[in-house]
Write a structure and sequence with these properties.
Number of helices: 18
Distance between the termini: 32 Å
Oligomer: single chain
CATH topology of the largest domain: Rossmann fold
Amino acid sequence: MAESILIIDDEESIRASLKGALEDEGFDVITAEDGESGITRTSEELPDLILLDIWMPGIDGIETLNRLKRLYPKLPIIIMSGHGTIEAAVKATKLGAYDFIEKPLSIEKVILGIGRALETSRLMQENLILKGDERHLIIGKSEAISKLKEDIESAAQSKAPVLLTGENGTGKEVVAWNIHNRSLRANKPFVTVNCAAIPEELMECELFGYEKGAFTGATSRQKGRFDIAHEGTLFLNGVGDISLSTQAKVLRIIQEMVFERVGGTKGIKVDVRVIAATSHTIHPSSLILHPSFLIHIPPLRERVGDIRLLAEHFINEFSRESGRPSKKVSPEAMSLLKRYDWPGNVRELRNLIERLVTISPSRLIEPHNLPPYLTGPAEGPIDDAFSTLDFKEARRLFEKEFIIRKMEENGWNISKTAEAMGIERSHLHRKIKSYGIEIKEL
């Protein structure tokens, strides 16, 4: 699929000449005659780059840029400025525009500018992928993890669909990302869909997008996750929560690489590799999505020897993020960590280490620093740690821990957790987002 460019300019002659020249260079080109329609076309098509005129009737280029950058902060935008608007163009670059090109336009300069902007955008995306490497490391030297790494390497060499199975918190998204990152699609999008968090009646709109007028409130065309994941990987986390009819549509797309948006009749070609995951104890044959690769991710209790390595990794990660001195776990405390059953698996260990890094006053994590469910009745020092925090920080820490425990008790189901806590689902969503609580692996 060719890279797409949106031209927003009120002069028809400029739109036409640029469109012709850029299409000759192999780009897909769409146009808009003013800022309002340009913002609408951006939401409909989500282009790879925008050429934006700075002086237009209605909302001008500066206001259009402001609104676009609020909605799509990573979208590269090049300003086109006429004589006498250079000062405004410089202001635009400070507001987030990639560059500006002065009119009258030189097609050669426009093409060079577009090339630089798209290359910078690609490098930024690759940098984000590299930054994600540490977060997506598979930590461990156990036999179970060695087998898992071999399975990942095998799956990465193929284009075939994959099904990941494993309990909550075992790291299914981490495994999916590693398969993607070791494949030929590594520099293309990795798009995650948390199926359990999406109501069934909205699932098809989320996956396939929809056309303007498809239903009440559909005021413009909207791309779906298959669009966004083109040439990359689509990770369906919690695929067991998708209805069999929707699974059948996904299977058809995998087989034919063509889909239709909700409310549309036009077949859209796509190149997407699907990785699905489920924590349900169901036989894979009950899924319509018959994968070529079936990979099981072991629970933490089956890889006890990896707990020390995981704990040290998380301590280093959170100490670095918070700017706090690194800590160590005493042998006695480590023994307690290793004897625990870890029903929440790696996610539960990670959350615990984050809390310990935050509240433990000393550089050495001792048994009395651990929560009661690991050690028995608390003896008091864990409470003393809160004396180092102000009221706002202590309340925030308690509330975050309370939400995490409630989520674990309810299988990380947001609706059930909200009901158990006696709050609205939307309110719980906002809390989860504000505290950065991860609920991706289901």
